[in-house]
Amino acid sequence: MVRFENVGLRYGLGPEILRDLSFMIPAHSFQFLTGPSGAGKTSLLKLLFLSLRPTRGLVNLFGRDVSLLGKDEIADLRKRIGIVLQDFRLLDHMTTYENVALPFRVMGREESSYRREVIDLLKWVGLGERMDALPPILSGGEKQRAAIARAVISRPHLLLADEPTGNVDPTLGRRLLRLFIELNKSGTAVVIATHDITLMDQYEARRLVLHQGRLHIYE
Amino acid sequence: MKHGGWCCIRDGCISMSRADEHGPLVDLGYERPQLPPQARNMSPIVPRASIAGRALVAVVAIMTFLASMTTGTVLLVSASAAEWQSDVSSEITVQVRPAAGRDLDRDTQAVADVMRRQAGIIEVRPFTKEESAKLLEPWLGTGISFDELPVPRVIVAQVQPGTVLDLAALRSRVTQVTPTASVDDHRAWIERMRSMTGATVLAGIGILVLVIIATIISVSFATRGAMAANRPIVEVLHFVGAGDRYIANRFLRHFLRLGLEGGLIGGGAAMLVFGFSESITGWFSGTPVGDQFAALLGTFSLRPSGYLALAAQAVLIAAITAWASRRTLFATLDDIE
Fold first, then answer.
1. What is the ipTM of this complex?
2. From CA B161, how far away is CA B163, in angstroms rounded?
3. How far is CA A102 from CA A26, A197, B307, in A?
4. Judged by CB atoms within 8 Å, which residues 161-180 of A form the interface with B?
5. What is the DSSP letter of A40?
6. Which of A4, A152, B83, B216 has the fewest CB atoms below 10 angstroms from its CB?
7. Average confidence score pLDDT of chain B
8. What is the pLDDT of residue B23?
9. Which residues in chain A (27-46) have CB-CB distances under 8 A to chain B?
């Protein structure tokens, strides 16, 4: 599904922050991406999400060489990827319901066709009572759950999550991890970037460890 | 239980379906509300308030008003000039100057006879001595004996519309009977009129081009501002897989509406000005300025086709607003990942 070959990344003329990354993310796989702060986890997620282009090397996503993709093709590929970022990126003028339903709206689906699904997911992540609330009045944990719900609602083929349990209590953290595991069982490849050792210890999965710009894989 | 298209969380168990199976992601089982939820009024993806709409509407309205006034004035000048030209070009004036040893009345009569015999001339009117004096009255005043002055006599001939006269032959025949007569077909004057009209139309087109350029620049700035203000929205839309075309269309609707609003206000105001201008010029009739104005531009009223042109122009400016916005949108979207 994802293949990196000797990938390097630098910002501008600065030092290379990711070096010689070569790995694969198979379909239906589950992995934690971890490493110290500043190791480049978020940059690697952005490479996976096609927000950044590598400075060198080959990135192959869903069988496509990303260096050859046009903007429309990138948009099409992104429809198959869900992403949860650390800063949530919810739209402040839209309710929680509308934020979570946004991927369906962009796909051009009728509201009636996804209403039930969105409401059920919101209830499941504990936001059933906050459906009509605007993000500015949500707590950090609620925003995080809304962002996760938005990323998983369209059941993507690849889910990328950057510290998805960073702002929630351990109980809800476990609940969200279960959501990711079930999503993975239904066929989605999952990459969770986290510092949370407790979270990683709850589920036996492959670990990708970034250290000083290089990647070490523990199967 | 339906399999493959849903999941449940009863007793802590959850299961899910694949994305392309279109079932619910999470089934709440007995927790599910029994009544179907109501359809929701969805917020616009790009909030209208986030676009500096009023300023842009004002700019487009002012630009449309200026463009409409320019176009309307150009149409009026062209129509009046065309009318003048057709009046003048169907007229020939012959001037018979007095000369020592010649009888001016007889010469005038002889020239008038020659003119009447000319094919294509439908009416010949020699001005009498009194009529000639009347023509000079504004300059020389009344009570002057014109017998002592060498005042030339004027003969005005009407040419059948569409007829091309052989002026050289006519001149030759006229000067044979009266060497002091000269024939004027007003060609030089018409040429001057034509170049004046052409200059007016050119100036109008120049002003229109400037107005359109200014509109495009204003709209581009407004679009860039709107895109900068809504950058987080654009980024999120990219995250959820929206293409540039989808995002641009969300913005474009706003700009098209703003352009139409501005065009309607500016174009409507200009039409009102032209609509009321006839009565406004009526207030000044009898004054020297009003009379000169009326002589130059007639009644200062636009024809129905002129109003149609103004309406079409307002729509054109709205379309230009949308086009300029679209162009800027795609250029800006290229910079946002």
1. 0.86
2. 6
3. 27, 32, 45
4. 178-179
5. S
6. B83
7. 78
8. 47
9. none
